[in-house]
Specification:
Layout lengths: L11 H16 L12 H60 L3 H6 L17 E2 L3 E2 L5 E6 L7 E9 L9 E6 L3 E4 L8 E10 L2 E2 L6 E4 L15
Antiparallel strand pairs: 1-3, 2-3, 3-6, 4-5, 4-7, 7-8, 7-9
């Protein structure tokens, strides 16, 4: 027994025109199908089925085109509305400012425009472990999400071998998140570092201390060092 499996295109876009060709052929001349074993009623029924599919495909295509047109019209109308809204709100704001009447915004049922506040204080940096460099310098680095335009204030505290730590002293204002201290004093037991973020409106808290230890022998000193 012969079956229809794989004997016609499986894709819709190919099958419909393929079926239209066969439906026209099977209608035959003057409504009499060719000698292929099907009746005139069957060929007419199949032709109508193909026509129904073609009409549905056309309707779907038209609906999609209408949907695209409607979507474009909606976006255009929305942009116009937002543009007019912005213009009207600027007019209302100007009127409220010129008349010095804050009740204008209440009568318009819109919130007052926000005034620009101060930039919030930057976050506290996270100090990383110090690294000793071969020439006697110390690399001090840190991590922080500080945003653009930030500067970093680096301070150092000297710890002599036989006495208490000295005061904190600012040794650098830089734009990078790392500092190479080439002026580590000769003979110190340790050097402490801390850093904070500086912006135009203020500063962050100081970071926790990061320490470079040199032991009882003391530091060899950096290239720019002096004896402590």
């Amino acid at each position: 027994m012969t079956t229809s499996s794989r004997r016609y295109p499986s894709r819709q876009g190919q099958l419909i025109p393929w079926a239209r060709t066969r439906a026209t052929l099977w209608l035959g001349n003057q409504g009499v199908p060719p000698d292929i074993g099907i009746s005139s009623a069957q060929s007419v029924e199949f032709d109508q089925a193909v026509s129904d599919v073609e009409a549905a495909v056309l309707a779907e295509s038209n609906a999609r085109a209408a949907l695209r047109t409607a979507g474009l019209a909606k976006r255009t109308a929305y942009k116009k509305m937002v543009k007019l809204l912005g213009s009207l709100m600027r007019t209302i704001d100007a009127y409220a400012d010129n008349t010095d009447d804050p009740g204008v915004w209440s009568r318009a049922s819109i919130p007052e425009p926000r005034t620009g506040g101060e930039r919030p204080a930057p976050p506290q940096p996270t100090a990383l472990s110090t690294q000793l460099v071969d020439n006697g310098s110390v690399l001090f680095a840190w991590e922080v999400a500080s945003g653009g335009g930030a500067m970093y204030e680096v301070q150092r505290q000297i710890v002599p071998v036989d006495s208490a730590p000295g005061p904190w002293t600012t040794i650098a204002f830089i734009g990078q998140k790392r500092f190479v201290d080439e002026a580590v004093p000769v003979g110190v037991a340790a050097v402490n570092y801390q850093v904070r973020v500086r912006i135009s409106t203020g500063a962050s808290p100081w970071s926790l201390t990061s320490t470079a230890n040199f032991g009882s022998a003391g530091a060899q000193g950096g290239p720019l060092s002096k004896v402590a």
